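Table S2 (text version). Query chain:
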Amino acid sequence: MAENTHNFYIPKTNLIGVGAIKDLPEALMPLKLRKVLIVTDKNMISLGYVDNIEKILKALFIAHDIFDGVLHSNPTVSFVEDGLAYFPFKLNVLAKDYDFIISIGGGTNHDCAKAIATVATNSGSIGDYEGWKKVTKPALPLVCINTTGCGSEVTMFSIITDNSRKVKMLIGSPFMMPSISVNDPMFMASMPNELTAGVGFDVIAQCIESYICTEASPITDALALHGINLATQYLPRAYENGNDLEAREKMMYASAMTGMALNNAGLGYVHSMAHQLGGFYNEYHGNYDAILLPFVLEYNAVSISDERMIKIAAAMNIKTDNKSEALDKIIASLLKMRYDFKMPTGLSQMGVKEKDMDQMSQNALKDITALLNPRHGTVEDIKGLFKAAM
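Corresponding structure-token output:
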């Protein structure tokens, strides 16, 4: 049989469930840490989440500094450089001051922390590592304490916006994998409706894309399908009532599953296109996913087997044994959710301009998530999808 490897990467330790944060001291103790840099944002501080972690560090006699310069939901090269300014000795690895980074927040903060951790040990700037496996040394060890539910806490990928090129760079390497992830839904109850909807739609898009992309395996299939099932079932409840802890917990599991699935299977055109929109317009990523997913799924349908399409429908509790009907019902269900969650219905609503589509379409095909899309298209195909989604 021809060689066909499907290696599986996840953080070494994953603390998960209501109250999981209580297990963090036990996970940190054997590491004999001296000093930690916390990467977060001002909202996490005002909600008291950072204070929770500071108490844990103080009890373990671990010194810490706080970098709260993650200023919005699309982390930029400048955020990474601001975080690196905390490292003395011009990033001389042998003299570095911190032996760990703790990221508190959602995917934005985790991506920023991964980038800081990577440059801290590899030197240069984060742009030097754009693409797949350009990182040559292990990043500084990282703990990701998740407060939204996007999957980034368990992945070896970081997405950083280079404003000078209007590009969201995707940086991926097993050397960037967090050491510990923490998913405790107690940290997620404060998420506003809009964020709950956007993150939830991102989870659904990631699950569907990792299930149909060319590197999918039986392990990632199981994670993706169950993630779809949990997210489509419990997202409406989490949206209606943010304090519904059961719904939050189920969405948290869906988030961790989608992170593990995409980390090992990949994604597709929804994300390669959404990354470009984020690079150009800096709006919220989950809304781009919600607009693009129905169009990209329809475009990809010719390259998706009947069995896979029907299984996606079944995961969404849609009964059918017909691929065409399954596709129609999946799209109808996604559109209904988008409407119920009061999300934008077209890219023009989000300020997207047709004049930018040529550049975005070219960039989308260069994005590493595009390589694993089940159907390989042209720049014109991508442009057509952008136009259809207006």
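Notes on Table S2: The longest helix spans residues 218-240. The mean pLDDT is 92.
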